[in-house]
Amino acid sequence: MQQLQAGLARALCVLLAMAGTLRAGAAEEHAGHPLPQTRAESARVRFAEVPLSDQHGRELRLADAVGERIVVMGFVYTSCTTVCPVISAIMQKVQAQLGERAGAEVGLLSISVDPLRDSPARLLEYSRAYQSGPGWRWLTGEVAAVDEVLKGLGVWSADFASHPPNLLVGDARSGQWTRYYGFTDPAVLVARIEVLAAAREHAGHGHMARHATQESRP
């Protein structure tokens, strides 16, 4: 618990720096290591058809957890006291900024990269530190299954303890995905969500307009 509290304290410092409330360079180092530079790039993902479990022990597949929603994914493990608390704190702020949209229109997923130790019960306990709501699922499973999931998402690492900090934001309906490296400002992630949501709305209006045109033809 003390390690988790220390990690949360470091996460808060990083997020404050992101918001501009600390002087430039105040979060220059994180747990003795320089903060990674943030960048984004388009990504191609594949949802592995393997069984997983959420933090309540319910079995599901990644495609079931995503559904047809816009999704933010983070990759963590519960014994991590450096990178993972920051990633989870970023997700927490995204959840707060989404409000009631979290879970309905937008899903949040945290996937363990250490499934050997991260049982559903352990993820449930860990999630409480971040005020995880019903729209935020934490996934684990058998090692082979989780490895398949991580490989399909392009985030698998031979050494889970040194996995790089990154997040994925995408629309399961359109197949548009963006990978964010480093400790990305939550506002950047929410802005991407808004772009994807606007594209959905535009596509919906276009479909209705085409349908109306077809019906009006003799």
Outline of the structure:
This protein has 218 residues and is of the alpha+beta class. The chain has helices at residues 2-18, 62-66, 83-98, 120-128, 143-153, 186-216; strands at 29-30, 33-34, 39-43, 52-53, 59-60, 70-76, 106-112, 136-139, 166-171, 176-181. Disulfide bonds join 80-84.
Tell me, briefly, the overall form: globular
Highest-level CATH class = Alpha Beta
CATH architecture: 3-Layer(aba) Sandwich
Helix/strand-derived category reads: alpha+beta
Task: Give the helix tally.
Answer: 6
Q: Tell me about the largest β-sheet.
A: 6 strands, mixed
Bin the strand percentage: 15-25%
Terminal residue distance: 71 Å
CATH topology: Glutaredoxin
Number of domains: 1
Alpha-carbon Rg, integer: 18 Å
Tell me what the structure shows:
This protein is of the alpha+beta class and 218 residues long. Helix content is 41%, strand content 20%. It has helices at residues 2-18, 62-66, 83-98, 120-128, 143-153, 186-216; strands at 29-30, 33-34, 39-43, 52-53, 59-60, 70-76, 106-112, 136-139, 166-171, 176-181. The strands form 3 sheets. It has a 6-stranded mixed β-sheet with strand order 3-10-9-6-7-8. The chain has a two-stranded antiparallel sheet with strand order 1-2. The longest helix has 31 residues, at 186-216. The radius of gyration is 18 Å and the shape is globular.
